Give the backbone structure.
Amino acid sequence: DGTLLSRGYNDRGQLGNMTRINSPLFQKVNFSYNMSFKCIDMACGSDHNLALMSDGALFVWGAGALGQLGLGPNQKDTLQPTEILFFRNKHISIQQISCGQYHSVVIGNEARQSNENSKKSPRQSIYSFGLSEYDIHNINGRGRFRNVRESRYYFSPRKLEANILNDKSIIGVGCTAHSTIIQMNNGALYTWGWPS
C-alpha cells in the first residue's frame, strides 16, 4: 500500500522516525506529508535514504553532512523525511533513484523546447549529489579525483553533462559504494567513480 517501515541502527536518523534510537522491530517512517500519495520507489545508502512518492516528490532523511541528502550546504542529519524541492521547482519528473554509500543519483525528465511548433518535449538527465571523491560526479572521466572539501560538487543536485544520452534513454541505474552504473535502452552499460 506504499507505507514505509524501517528497523535497525539509527545513529544518524536513518529510520526516519524523528529519533536516534535503534529499533529491532519495524516502525512506520514518519512523514509529515499528505499520505494520500504513496511511496513508489526507495533507495538506501550507508546511513541515508531516498523515497519517491506517487506525486513525484522526492524525500530524503538520515545522514547529510557530506551532501548525500541534496538539501544544500550546512546540512546535518535529518531525522524525518524532508522533500528535495530542487526537482519540483525545476519541473523535473523523476523516473529512477539510487544511493551509493555517501552519494545519491536521480534520473529525471526535464522539459525542453522542441523545434516543432515550439512544443516542449522531455529530455532525460542524470543528477547526483553527495561525497565527491573518486570522480563520483564526473561522468566523462576527464577530471582528477575530487577533493572532499570541494563543496560546489555535492551539496545540491548537480546535473551531469554527458554525450552518451544523445538519442538514447536510461532504463536502469544502480550505485556501488563509490560508483554509479547506468543501463541504456540499447543494452550498453556505463560506469563512473572508483574503478577498483
Q: What stands out?
A: The chain has a mean pLDDT of 85. The first strand starts at residue 5 and ends at 8. Helices lie at 85-89. The chain is about 5% helix and 40% strand.
